[in-house]
Amino acid sequence: MAHGEVLEFEEYVRTRQDALLRSARRLVPDPVDAQDLLQTALVRTYGRWDGIADKRLADAYLRRVMINTRTEWWRARKLEEVPTEQLPDASVEDSTEQHADRALLMDIMKVLAPKQRSVVVLRHWEQMSTEETAAALGMSAGTVKSTLHRALARLRQELESRAADESAGPAARAFEREERERCAA
Prior knowledge:
The protein has helices at 3-27, 31-48, 58-76, 97-108, 114-125, 130-137, 141-163, 169-184.
């Protein structure tokens, strides 16, 4: 890679790293894993930087690399979890309601399949259109819509099952409110 392109990549990373880390954080629940995911995606993107003709699409390219990397990790994981009939209580150390809501949302996102999680993250957190999401994930707009519909239904079902627990009450209402606001946008 030419010296000018190396400088261009470094400048891109400097200006976009916070937004990209937020995207990675939404794809994987653990902050350390999110940093690893972003670093892995940046290394893979660096090797192909000169092949990205339109640098305005670098964010979309990098998000796609993060999604693919996360999917690889998910497939390679060792299943050490044991299914139980009773879900463990979500522990939130921060006393503010906003942090509790966010922790609950991140926790219930774990029930989604990787494809569903990717669609929810891109559509609702990244606020991409259906067409942009479809292009980023390499699927049709109809598939994005149906995947999003199933994912939101699964999230609602998970929230309803947790709503029986009194501590999830305010967080469930906050999720519903946030979901209505995002859908209206």
